[in-house]
Design brief:
single chain; globular; mainly alpha; about 0% strand; 12 helices
Length: about 260
């Protein structure tokens, strides 16, 4: 029993350390790069005027670390099932070769986008919002630190996806690691406050199936729209894309930097 508990504790600590390291690396890295080093050159790509107060950033950071502790705790489900021989997927996936390695990663990202869209819409129900999602929307003007700033229930909902996926779909552990890396990169960039995605000459997204920074920033500004995480598909199919999204995106990619700096002054 003691060796099993020791293994569980070691897995929890390793998962928590890995996720905290990813979060700190990308949240701080994106904040430092965009909000400090490149603030002047990227002034024309800033979506909103002004910046959230320092207190908001500190609260977001603390809440994100709390969420990571929940991720690691829920993640013990996967480890326990694997140790008990009830999750053979990683062994099966290892024998399916490199094509399945990358295919399973792509499928995991697409499936997570669907999971996020529908659970996100669910916790926007007024009967659930205050308990599950209010913390995240306290960041009306988001920052890179907003990425994991969740209520306890929302953190648990987000954490459940990986154990469920690993249980149902043969997937190697390194694929799950790459998935988590992709997830934190997109999450921190999506909350960065600067429109970083490329545009066509007429000011439309060059890759229209991807959610841009403006797409998610609009969700924080007007919560009834834009529930998608990585892709715009579900919002388009379900009629939940903000009707002013393309207009706002065009404004973000066309605005001269000198105008933004003059307004800020």
């Amino acid at each position: 029993m003691l060796p099993y508990l020791a293994a569980m504790a070691d897995n929890w600590l390793h998962a928590a350390f890995t996720d905290v390291s990813r979060y700190v690396t990308f949240a701080v890295g994106v904040w430092l790069t965009l909000w400090v080093v490149l603030a002047a050159p990227l002034a024309g790509r800033k979506i909103r005027e002004g910046r959230p107060p320092a207190r908001q950033l500190l609260v977001e950071f603390a809440c994100s670390i709390r969420s990571i502790m929940i991720f690691s705790t829920v993640g013990l489900i996967s480890f326990a099932l694997f140790r008990a021989g009830l999750m053979p997927g990683p062994y099966i996936a290892r024998g399916l070769g490199p094509v399945w390695f990358w295919t399973s990663l792509a499928l995991m990202i697409v499936a997570h986008d669907a999971w996020f869209y529908w659970t996100h819409r669910l916790i926007h129900d007024r009967r659930l919002f205050r308990t599950f999602h209010r913390r995240h929307h306290r960041s009306n003007s988001p920052s890179p630190f907003t990425a994991y700033s969740f209520d306890l229930g929302e953190a648990a909902i987000n954490a459940l996806f990986v154990p469920l996926w690993m249980l149902l779909v043969p997937t190697q552990w390194p694929v799950a690691g790459l998935f988590m890396l992709h997830q934190i990169v997109r999450n921190t960039l999506g909350h960065s406050g600067y429109e970083l995605f490329p545009a066509t000459r007429d000011g439309r997204p060059l890759l229209p199936w991807l959610t841009t920074v403006t797409h998610h920033d609009l969700h924080h500004a007007q919560a009834g729209w834009n529930y998608g995480l990585y892709f715009t598909w579900w919002d388009k199919w379900m009629g939940t894309e903000n009707p002013r999204y393309l207009e706002r995106f065009a404004a973000a990619v066309r605005r001269p930097g000198r105008e933004v700096m003059a307004e800020a002054a």
